Amino acid sequence: MGRKGLAMATTPANDQLTPAGNLGPATALVCRECGARRDLGPHYACEECFGPLEIDYAFGDLTRADIEAGPQNIWRYKGLLPVPANVADTPNTEPGLTRLVRADNLAEALGLQRLWVKDDSGNPTHSFKDRVVAVALAAARELGFKVLACPSTGNLANAVAAAAARAGIRSAVFVPSNLEQQKIITTAVYGGTFVTVDGNYDDVNRLASEIAGEQEDWAFVNVNVRPYYAEGSKTLGYEIAEQLGWRLPDQIVVPVASGSQLTKIDKAFQEFIKLGLVEDKPYRVFGAQAAGCGPVAAAFKGGHDVVRPVKPDTIAKSLAIGNPADGPYVLDVTRRTGGAVEDVTDEQVVEGIRLLARTEGIFGETAGGVTVSVLRKLIESGQIDPSAETVIINSGDGLKTLDAVAPVVAPSANIKPTLDAFRAANLA
Ligand SMILES: *Cc1c(COP(=O)(O)O)cnc(C)c1O
Ligand SMILES: [Zn+2]
Description:
four-stranded parallel beta sheet, alpha/beta
């Protein structure tokens, strides 16, 4: 017998639109550029202008108590996501509700008064990508897809392969062949179809779009299911607000690859305000990139509305998207909220990883190093207010990017197993 089908529906994915009732509070897809609406379904681009589609909702009444009574994972927010009401009953990786760490030591090192680290390395495959994949998988089932697929810079590959394994469906994952060895192994271990491609992420992404055009029942989570996938990042924003005691921070620094995470954290804050779940107050959103792949930072600093694609060259491979789909929307959010987009060198990325580890005992991956060092740069340039409450995101686990720090960290000494040897080493 073949693998269990992904879908309840028996109709081919593109032939029939899904009844909205199966996707919880989601009501339609809306073009972010021209506002054209279309029915919910396996669509990602506007028919009028090819702009990206976004989910529209009709939210029911939702109280803090309702959410607090929910599961200890992202499904406590299912009433705000394009997923069926019974989503938590289907096998899934149950990501989310990662810790929000009060980072007093790092704050002191940087001259900040109140700083928190949202540590998303605590997710099932150790990055924030488990959130978006869980939502994409739930929607893909409803939309009739059979295979869970993605082009990835690494973490998404881990998350898709694991989520598909847990759901008992087939995965098909495509990554650049120069990916970190750790991320290759931590994807391959879950089984599924796993292809390394001789090219950079933007090449892999283009290939995935072409394959998606031929394989109609393959859900490329971040391509043809992207409107649903992207909503998963809202849960980061919801959790930060809930974990702060149902209020918003003053400032937040978010790593930027495609830019989806940053824009959806802002969307989450806006939704919580509209639903009356938090008090309306100003907050500023900052984006963090590596200088070796900083097209959004360059556009922000140059005062441009258009993001000019770059060829990535950085150790922060999880952020190495040279042509970021949501780049213009990152510019919108950061400018609207009075934030900024900054970038830091690879050397500063490594310093950022080490600073977070030494001060807070949190080993972040290169994306975390980018975020910590961008925070420092924004403080030094006066763009971040040191007296205002700040949250930064550590979006992945340092064990997945060991090569970044391997050359610069080592044991204090290597000694023979004798007390004399210990004394001689002057370590006391
Ligand atoms: C994918 C990723 C991001 C950013 O994601 P976008 O939504 O594409 O901007 C940040 N950090 C890590 C570790 C990632 O894997
Ligand atoms: Zn449009």
